[in-house]
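for the record, two folds in this file. i put them one after another cuz i was lazy. first one right below, seq on top, structure tokens after. the second one comes after a little note so u can tell where it starts
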Amino acid sequence: MRPPRAICFDFDGVILESLDIKARAFRELFSEHPRHADAIVDYHNANAGMPRYDKFRYFYEELLRRPMPAGEMERLDARFSALVFKAVLDCPWVPGALEFLRSYRQALPLYVVSATPEPELRRIIEGRGLGGYFRAVYGSPKDKKQNLAALLAGHRLEPSAAVSIGDGSADYEAAQAAGVPFIARVTPGKRPYWESRGVAMIEDLRPLAETLGLKP
């Protein structure tokens, strides 16, 4: 792989070890429906990178099989944010993530493309001391395909000059749609998925610079 001119990171599971936090939040959020708890957590885990709003719709449409009440989306969103925000501020870094960001934030434009609502994502980035590390931050309500396309157009980047680092199918599909090279951060249970797609894989971000061919 040629050294990229820009790097696009997913956030949960790539910069922070926050996936389990969000799985627990989904279980708590729908605790009044215990027979569906495993199903919604499984759906969340299988669809890393999907906006939470789509997962809320799935719960009502496919599991409860009833219309979502007026105002319920906003209530679920506010409750979910309250459940995860402090925990995400305190959770561990993905090994190598902070060191990579510190080493290359001056040398390369770094971006975030996440499914987390953008205002919340910006608060988390500031709270983790990463303000100024990223050239731009993109979150929901737009999906990752839309955001990655907007990033490339807005910053006049050729797709082949960038690289996307993600841990979920939505990250991969966005990179494929945009024509951006992709590297998978392998989380538990996902190796067969990535192997079947023939993508480059890393266990964490410690070997990322070498994988990208970047100079120390």
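(here's the note) second protein begins now
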Amino acid sequence: MIADVLLDQRVASGIGNVYKSEVLWSLQTNPFDTIDTVADERLAQLYRRASRLLIANLTTTSRTTVPGGLAVYGRRGKPCRRCATPILKKDQGQFARITTWCPRCQPASS
């Protein structure tokens, strides 16, 4: 799944659960899509966005990805900042890492 690929430190280091969920939300990508359904350009966009967010947060004491804080991470059950749909949370992958997402803004690939 794309969320697992983003967490793979052999590919790019520094992307943890928070940034994984936030980056996927920002580019409206479903965390449960398999890597073969994600276009190469979208994958590149995800890593570029992660890089920008990580750099933007280097000198802060709290993570911020949208005005007011975080878009989805730690916000299970609260309204999506884009569409007001309740945010979902699920353990995902081999190590059961927390993933949060908006089911409306981040629909699964067809």
